[in-house]
Amino acid sequence: TYLHLAANPGLTQALMRAGVHGVAYETIQAEDGSLPCLVPMSEIAGRLAVQEAAKYLERPMGGRGVLLAGIPGVQRGRVVILGAGVVGFNAAKMAIGLGAQVTVLDIAHRRLKELDDLYGPAVQTLYASGDNIAACARQADALIGAVLLPGATAPKLVTRALVKQMQPGAVIVDVAVDQGGCCETTKPTTHDDPVYSVDGVLHYCVANMPGAVARTATLALTQQTLPFGLELASKGFLQAARENAVLRRGVNVDAGCITCPAVAQSLGLPCAPLAA
Amino acid sequence: TYLHLAANPGLTQALMRAGVHGVAYETIQAEDGSLPCLVPMSEIAGRLAVQEAAKYLERPMGGRGVLLAGIPGVQRGRVVILGAGVVGFNAAKMAIGLGAQVTVLDIAHRRLKELDDLYGPAVQTLYASGDNIAACARQADALIGAVLLPGATAPKLVTRALVKQMQPGAVIVDVAVDQGGCCETTKPTTHDDPVYSVDGVLHYCVANMPGAVARTATLALTQQTLPFGLELASKGFLQAARENAVLRRGVNVDAGCITCPAVAQSLGLPCAPLAA
Amino acid sequence: TYLHLAANPGLTQALMRAGVHGVAYETIQAEDGSLPCLVPMSEIAGRLAVQEAAKYLERPMGGRGVLLAGIPGVQRGRVVILGAGVVGFNAAKMAIGLGAQVTVLDIAHRRLKELDDLYGPAVQTLYASGDNIAACARQADALIGAVLLPGATAPKLVTRALVKQMQPGAVIVDVAVDQGGCCETTKPTTHDDPVYSVDGVLHYCVANMPGAVARTATLALTQQTLPFGLELASKGFLQAARENAVLRRGVNVDAGCITCPAVAQSLGLPCAPLAA
Amino acid sequence: TYLHLAANPGLTQALMRAGVHGVAYETIQAEDGSLPCLVPMSEIAGRLAVQEAAKYLERPMGGRGVLLAGIPGVQRGRVVILGAGVVGFNAAKMAIGLGAQVTVLDIAHRRLKELDDLYGPAVQTLYASGDNIAACARQADALIGAVLLPGATAPKLVTRALVKQMQPGAVIVDVAVDQGGCCETTKPTTHDDPVYSVDGVLHYCVANMPGAVARTATLALTQQTLPFGLELASKGFLQAARENAVLRRGVNVDAGCITCPAVAQSLGLPCAPLAA
Amino acid sequence: TYLHLAANPGLTQALMRAGVHGVAYETIQAEDGSLPCLVPMSEIAGRLAVQEAAKYLERPMGGRGVLLAGIPGVQRGRVVILGAGVVGFNAAKMAIGLGAQVTVLDIAHRRLKELDDLYGPAVQTLYASGDNIAACARQADALIGAVLLPGATAPKLVTRALVKQMQPGAVIVDVAVDQGGCCETTKPTTHDDPVYSVDGVLHYCVANMPGAVARTATLALTQQTLPFGLELASKGFLQAARENAVLRRGVNVDAGCITCPAVAQSLGLPCAPLAA
Amino acid sequence: TYLHLAANPGLTQALMRAGVHGVAYETIQAEDGSLPCLVPMSEIAGRLAVQEAAKYLERPMGGRGVLLAGIPGVQRGRVVILGAGVVGFNAAKMAIGLGAQVTVLDIAHRRLKELDDLYGPAVQTLYASGDNIAACARQADALIGAVLLPGATAPKLVTRALVKQMQPGAVIVDVAVDQGGCCETTKPTTHDDPVYSVDGVLHYCVANMPGAVARTATLALTQQTLPFGLELASKGFLQAARENAVLRRGVNVDAGCITCPAVAQSLGLPCAPLAA
């Protein structure tokens, strides 16, 4: 299952005390650095993020009453996406598809180049400097927080002061909420009560976004996790983790110890990596 | 304002009794047959329709829990659009943009060709035979009713029996609700209480959809109606209607008479067109 | 040849005194209202306009030192195009192709829709209100004047005051210069000395832009005019003009009279249309 | 030359007895795992596969009489592609280009993502589970077998029973035939007699597909093999193989021994890799 | 049914003698000049034309051995299309989709502009001068004859001498064969024996191309002709033809007289149009 | 700063004598072989190269008078790009965007494939054999030299004899001039006097192309170099170079020794790499 321990010191302590084997889907990592169990959920969350932004921009839902696509002769809605990783890339794809005016900010030139190659002038890519983030946020109809680092807390790129300068009725969808969020004003919400307002800006911070499209999410996850599940079942935990380095990287706590360096560093606790 | 008298015999009678000049935005018609005041609202409604479908397909909103885009390796959501006029065309644009598997049905080859030219294999166009409509509806995650005829009632293309055969949790967005709807199960709803369920299929039938994006809609409408408003104000009703054929076609009732042939025909009442 | 009499009272008087048959390429008009001799030159001028804008935005040419495409992570150049007719459409095509952030303004919804359909969120279309024009001009790196009306003077959409508010080093390319220009600051220039500066804004206002790409322009024009030339040669002027309505509409002056209504109206002179 | 020994035990034995140096184009492998001599031939075969499918779907060629593109208002042909490697990717490109409704199945999420990014809703990517393969095959007008593993036999993804459930007049193009094919019903054919029918389903299983477009194939191959040929000629076999790891990986048999692990494993024979 | 009388004096005489009512699908013409029964068949023929060209370019089928798409690093096949009407437009769409280097020639600027807008630099449009046709034909791998005029014989744009200068193994697909063909070397062939060679150039001139994809063609035609058939059945010939102008234009011969002006002109016979 | 020592033996000697720490932006190299400081400048130069080619193809600037886009019915300009690295890729993107007929030559199949995937038949990719280069150059309106190897001199792919065979008024933009150029006729020019003619072919060989768009270039460079600058400032040269391998690879001369292998090899001088 997904653990997100870096943002949950309490859960981490509990797992350590219980002495369980804690395999976190989000830190299972392939040889090439990719995250096979996190990627599909990130794709879903990124695609869903724009859908939520569009929804809450509607006047009856509390938003500014802006249609992202605009129509011929009328200004398109402005969508600002912080982060061009899997979440941000998929959010950009949807926002462009819905006809919004899209800006994506990141510090990784290579990721921005990929967006530039694929979407050309339908997207504006910008270096994620503080100035650029602030200028974009002030003009945004929707802001998507998509800065996720595997197993670490998200940086607070959007301050409380900046939220105050955003347009009334604008919408923030903070996909990074599972790792603490990338806005200072972010706090986790649920599908039952998904949004709250800070300084007139709607915040959608549902911790388990893919749950909203359970049919799609289940199909997506089963494909990725089935092989690991079969291996765990047939070999037992220790042998499976020893023989399969991809799985082993997913073990966050084991026998009372944190075994994932990123989690340990975020929480300031010692780390005892599992041996092969 | 928008009157939609063909679907409102009561309102028509009231207007006739009151003896008012009733200019219906939806029947103002340019020389080339286009409808300058209806088009922007139809564009907004068509674009919004897919957004509503996506929203109500979410599990917490009552739907099937399907993400229209799917993700790599997982089936895309299926969107079926009845009608390839302005509403249907714009709905198709958004559904394709969101990554759905889109089918558009119409009887006008020229309209289907335009979609085929613009979107290629990202859209399936089909002749709107009863068989094709039924087969598509049964597989649909979302069905968009987009069959609007200026000043006339919409044909009932989706029967109650067909709704029963649709998938549980599927969503119908009937944009034609202003003209009676193109599903037998359609009845008008409001932004406060937008959906209801029939045989497990969610129906979104808000009569004034563009109101949800009031900021965009106001900008759009002002651009089109301002010139007519100025002309009415400066010349008075009769002279403006006499001199401007585009405006004249928009007059539906005048001095107790129906002046729009389509409205008259739909309601089975006599028609007395306004003279130039 | 091209006459542009509406903007040249002196030339008009001279032609009237001389009693010549004056066929203006720019007013030859087909049954469907299209302008077969003007269209190719307008296409060339529109495509060239963006190339000139890019050129004069270079620092060594006197401009702001902005690359229209930007690069990943750096803001694209902003191109604002006034008019979505043939010139504006072709300018937009090139500006989008070069990767600029493009805004096109017009009052014709149908033309804006065509751009929206073809280029989606790679273009922002806006209604050409005074407010929109001013807001766009102030942010523009390049502004293309593309408001041409067959046989009439161009409206002055960009005031001297607005030019003053533009960014230093921005570039105006006024393609409408042949008909007087659509900026108050426009005055005709030549290929030998193509630009001048007003309030720090470079103006490119070459009256015969297609001459810069003579090889392409000659090929383009020959294809359209050859049929008319052959008809004039074989039938003589009067008979050709009588029998061919398309050609007849191109006659601007004949036997000392203005024969083109638009020219006559612009100059406040009487008009004597040629009979069939 | 191409050897495909894994599917040819007889040829392997002969080569071992003859004691020749057997360099198989298909196993020459660069540092990054790419196959420089196989890739161009796979690209050609993948592109050609759809062309053959379209051809044999014609009624006079024995097929269902379906045009892959359909036309506006008529269902597109359905093309199902098993495998999203080089062959499958290129087949998808052509099938989408011809306007078919295309589904690509693979187990590698990364490959499916590339197709999703490049072609959006013009392609449906699916996880290659047995259920998905069967459901797709039953609806297919054309099925392309594109599952090739370097130097190994292809898995039999399409059973004889599944072929029986396909539509009459459907076409299978099994590009994997060189490695045994990915259908149980596959057997190699030639350009002289390229197709046969099993249960009403046409099978095109030509072992050397690129030979059909010899001019293109020759140009393609020469570019890739010329450098190796020059190196072999100037250095002799042993030294060239020792110094050039890319070439060395291409050696399948040498001095009576199998030197390629994949071939040895497929045939259950011992392997003696060539030393650097 | 389709008559193509302009190219069939014998059939015309026979129909006149028999005194039948001859409704030609190809001349049924809507108010806007479009040809509702011809268009779908022209779309199919145009799309199929490129498929046939690709097929006969294969070495085993007698052609040059060229893959239209080429592959990265290898020259694309060159496809030249004469005519940018419905047939040519659809042929261009397929040829571009298959990755060929495509040139389309026509004299109608508006048609070439549509291709230029939709496909940009993936297509080269050229004015159909004799010089351009000759230069293109000499370099072509495939040449598609797509010059069809409703009810008239096709112009012979490709002379016997020009065919001689084409590349050996090149392929001509003359879709205009139903109206006599646009190459001097064209003569009708059948699906049983579709090609012949003249000076080393393969000619595919099947008179009823859509028959090859009977399933698609039947669906396409039924949608268009069903309404007319129902009207003929319920009203009888004379009344139906009188009341429905679209149908009336389709009547080519009636009671021993030619009733279609274009047919009469092509055959040099008198014409007696049917009265409303 | 950028040093390009391989092409500047004099500067190299001077730097060695002075004993400075010479960090060359162009050889700072990340773990994956990418060049973070060179890439943005190469992107700008590649994009700018096509803009310069378009400019100097204008008749008043001395060129052939060709519009790269052509217009419907008129031949597009032909752009030939030598090299499909960062410079060539970005030049191709702009040339395609401007509507030219583009050919890109390289020996790396993978790079050509990327262009083929992204742009399809809008680009022709060719293997960079001598024959292909010569044939393309002879037909080119514009030729872009984009063959850059980090820290080495560019190969002379275009001989003086080949330049003589190019079309009069054609334009060469040699972006490789910083490393000696890839044409025999190349010699460095400046923004003040950017072009010269050899055998009627215009040569644009400005050594610091991005300087023309200083605003864009400064933004681009700052983002990449700021982190290195901060590290150098806080740690001092030696420690920074020791701890940061990316930076260390950028050191070309240090304490009188050449420390970059490629530079040393090009100049035939000994190399003393900096230790970690």
Considering the chains and any ligands shown, give keywords for the structure.
homohexamer; alpha/beta; 3-stranded antiparallel sheet; 276 residues; 39% helix; elongated; 7-stranded mixed sheet; 10 helices
Most extensive interface between two protein chains, with residue counts: A-B, 44 and 44 residues
Using the CA coordinates, give the radius of gyration of chain A.
19 Å
Q: Give the end-to-end Cα distance of chain A, rounded to a whole number of Å.
A: 22 Å
Which blocks of ≥5 consecutive residues of chain A have pLDDT under 50?
Answer: none
Which strand order do you get reading across the main beta sheet of chain A?
4-3-2-5-6-8-7
- Strand content range of chain A: 5-15%
List SSEs of chain A in N-to-C order: HEHEHEHEHEHEEEHHHEEH
Number of strands of chain A: 10
Quaternary assembly: homohexamer
Count of alpha/pi helices of chain A: 10
Mean pLDDT of chain A: 89
Q: Indicate the structural class of chain A.
A: alpha/beta
Characterize the overall form of chain A: elongated
Query: Tell me about the biggest sheet of chain A?
Result: 7 strands, mixed
Into which percent range does the helicity of residues of chain A fall? Answer: 25-40%
